[in-house]
Amino acid sequence: MAALKPFAMPKWGIEMTEGTVAEWMVQEGAPYEKGALLTLIETDKITNEVEAEAPGILVRIVAGAGETLPVGALLAVMADGPADAAEIEAFLATFKPADALGSAGRDGPKPAAPEAKPQPVASGVPADANISPGARRLAEERGVDVAAIAGSGKGGRISLQDVDQASRPAAAAIGGAPVSVAVDFVALDSFYASPLAKRIAHQNGIDLAGITGTGPRGRISKADVLAKARPAANSNAPAGAGPRVVPMDKVRKVIARRLTEAKQSIPHFYLRAEAKVDALIDLRRQANLFLGGKASINDFLVRAVALALVEVPDCNVQVHGDAIHYFSTADISVAIATDRGLVTPVVRGAERLSPHDIARETKALVAKAQAGRLSYEDMEGGSFTVSNLGMFGIDDFDAIINPPQGAILAVGTTRRVWGEQPDGAGAFESRMAFTLSCDHRAIDGAVGARFLAALKALIEAPERLFPQP
Predict the structure, then answer these.
(1) How confident is the model at residue 160 (pLDDT cuts 50, 70, 90)?
(2) Across the strands, what pairs with 414?
(3) C-alpha distances in Å from residue 261, one per residue of 68, 126, 420, 457
(4) What's the CATH code, domain 4-117?
(5) Could you tell me which residue, 23 or 309, shows the higher pLDDT?
């Protein structure tokens, strides 16, 4: 008899309450080795890769690709060897979400398999129906006849979303019939594409034959389909045409909710300053030439922010309820724009890194962000955020604080302005504008002003940005 183990929705961080199964990387019934990539789980702004902690077999997939489930919900059943259907059904019958460990391959409770008993047949839900347990429970609760549902899961499996959709009143378009949301995977099986990519293609009427996959071995990914779904930039809408309505995806909804909460609950105030950056531009050019790297101005700015936070630690904070957390290291969140929205991965211990070390860290994070592969560890625990829109020609802007952090620095573009020099003469110089958004619950105006003064001094004397011998 095989030892069965639950694979449940993991919990990454105290704020996570649910996740979405983006894609299964191992087929049902297939064996896998330790370290094998099992599935991709989407949470808010990130997609986490879940690896097996021990070898085994994925004997039953319970949650199909695209299903969103709460933390602890059963996603799959794993075993250390082949298991028959009776063993698996008995395990499912005794599983409780509290038993889930949220980790693939970790030893879980091994309840003794009771003698298999015929499962009661609920009204409208035949015992042999190809339906997930969660969908079965919902169908029983709402009295849905699953015989009329075309499952959108693998092999026509009926998912929780299928039952939920079927239980709602059909919404007919004007002059038309109700629209089916069932995914015809049979017509898409000939394409080498991820299940989520197929689902999006079906829902948007996209022909996969016209898409070149950018994934491993040419596999069509979700990003490839979404890129095809966007209208061409030079397309001309017919005269008098109405707006193109696109519902927010899960990530955009989370961003909207978090930013609304931040703006409503955090008492923002703003401090503005400018710094001369001619010396910084010259130093960067020389350093890149001498060290053979390609550190950007933003990498130097992150380094300057880190040192300014060490000098003014009262700005290096997080706010948790009525408590203020002060940090001894400068873990800088760097705002990165992606197709999925704005993400803020963390460069840790930036006060200990040179600008070129920061450049390497940032480039790696940007690559992971663009590929949708940022992990929870990449995003967790920043103490301050830098958001730079200078490369887009923005003079200055006010940024919304990224909770629970206490401040965010908005960086504008470099401008050539006429200014008075120390000898009283006039000359052109390069200047950059900064806006510091502060949480007034934790940071007072004088503290924010000291931070900006320290930052300006570091930028205008940039040799201090390199570790001194």
Answers:
(1) low
(2) 432
(3) 23, 45, 44, 34
(4) 2.40.50.100
(5) 309
Q: Are strands 323-326 and 317-320 parallel, antiparallel or unpaired?
A: antiparallel
d(CA 317, CA 301): 19
Query: Residue 77 is inside which H or E element, if any?
Result: strand 74-79
Cα gap 188→30, rounded to integer Å: 22
Peptide bond into 243 cis (omega under 30): no
Spatial distance between the Cα atoms of 455 and 396, rounded to a whole number of angstroms: 17
What one-character-per-residue DSSP string does 30-59 give?
Answer: -EE-TT-EEEEEEETTEEEEEE-SS-EEEE
- Average pLDDT in the 227-248 region? 65
268 noted as active-site residue: no
Q: Which DSSP symbol is given to 108? A: -
Residues whose CB falls within 8 Å of the CB of residue 120, separated by 6 or more in sequence, listed in order: 127
Would you list the domain boundaries of the chain?
4-117, 146-229, 268-465
Rg of the chain in Å (alpha carbons): 27
Same fold, 4-117 and 268-465: no
Burial class (CB in 10 A: 0-12, 13-18, 19+), 376: middle
Q: Which residue is associated with the tokens 């008995």?
A: 90
User: Reduced to 3 states, what is the DSSP secondary structure of residue 384?
Assistant: strand
Instruction: Output the CA–CA distances (angstroms, integers) from residue 242 to 44, 226, 237, 239, in the order listed.
Output: 31, 22, 9, 9
CATH code of 268-465, in short, is 3.30.559.10
DSSP assignment letter at 175:
T
Give the closest residue to 139 by CA, choosing from 169, 164, 168, 170. Answer: 164
Class in CATH terms, 146-229:
few secondary structures
Looking at residues 8-20, what average pLDDT do you find? 78
Answer whether 170's CB lies under 8 Å from 177's CB.
no
